[in-house]
Here is the input.
Amino acid sequence: MVFIDPVSIVLSIILCLCLISIIYGWNRNVYKNFPPGPMPLPFIGHLHLINKYEPFKTFMELSEKYGPVFSIQLGTKRFVVLCGYEALKEALVNNADEFSWRGEMPIFDEVAKGHGVIFANGENWKVMRRFTLSTLRDFGMGKKSLEEKVNEESDSLIQKIESFSGQPFENTVTMNAAVANIIVSILLDHRYDYEDPVFLRLMKIVNDNIKLLGHPMITLYNAYPSLIRWIPGVHKTITKNVNEYHNFIRETFAKQKEQLDANDQRNLIDVFLVKQQEEKKANGKYFSNENLVHLVSDLFGAGMETTSTTLRWGFLIMMKYPEIQKNVQNEIEKVIGSAQPQMEHRKKMPYTDAVIHEIQRFGKIAITTSPREITHDVVLKGYFLPKGTNVLLMLASALKDKDYFEKPDEFYPQHFLDSEGNFVKNDAFIPFSVGRRVCAGENLAKMEIFLFFTRLLQKFTFQLPPGVSDVDFSPAVGLTRGPKPYLMCAVPRY
Here is the structure.
């Protein structure tokens, strides 16, 4: 009897498949005129080509070779990747309906299970999005009342920064807390002290998960979920964190349910619970407890992280370019003086507006949108994309588009100024995405960024710590693109 080594059998199978792929073309397109791409390897596709910590770099390099629409394979799953403003616009605006269905992403799908607003689809997504937009507006988004809350929170933030007495401090927790309190005021009609242990824990969970979601293990998990889910790793830590986070939310809305008064709806959770009661009478299915948990989770995380990250990029950039910081402060003095900033001031402050836009463009906080699955056959940039095609949209590529930005790799406020110093819009500036799934909190984020940024530059000059000669613009690892932790000094101006 001949003994056959199992390892030898597996290696032989892989070798045979590799030979077959070479002979017959593993990357042979089933559909005529499908987007081109590099030759994938069996089972791993193009995972060996992907930059482990900055996949965006790989996608940009591939777009240079194959054009703005190309295909790649991650594990055994094929994707079409879109880069550049024109390709993104054609997909998300010109073919908005076909690109509005959120595609699969195992690490999120297993946590969200289609609930909430970010990771939902179909009628559930439509109902939750309509509810979110209307309720955010009802509680002040785009209104004077919310401006006042942001300015009140700015007072608390200033006091916290003043407590460092001009000495170096790391600003992540402080900025997260200030920004998070705005969305918390809408969700819970509450404000947390910056040192509150519950608040600190919630923010830590969000920050930790943002970092972990950028780990190479998550790329492998999304490629081989059935295999990786049984292996210890960061994906299990993410799940543990989410469970703790969701349990807190469940406890919170359970308490509010006991005190609920349909005639005095104090916050978003109250409004949702009243809708839930109304829906039960009509045998509805959308205002469920699980949708509430995930909706609050979505809004708290998104409402805190990207805005605070934008501001942290802003302070880092101001320390790098003190002359730009001084120009902003001069405009603040000219237009606002010592009064509290208001949104009505923004249109009178073209330079500050341009700097804020350029901070968002240069920072490229949201690298990509959630993946999409095409709902109907589409011809995009001359290529045929059949129904069911999985698409990755490189949102940040629009912010680096050479056809729209003169110096895409530099911090250059003139991208948003004309020769006379007037503010000019740029079509490729889409940090909040475009189309059906454009960020629901866009107007809230714009308000917060302007008011916090101008108020803090009105009050302080941001400087590098003694002995530090330059800043580091290389990004931290994470789902979003934030700066690495840094120390800064906030020197009072008056």
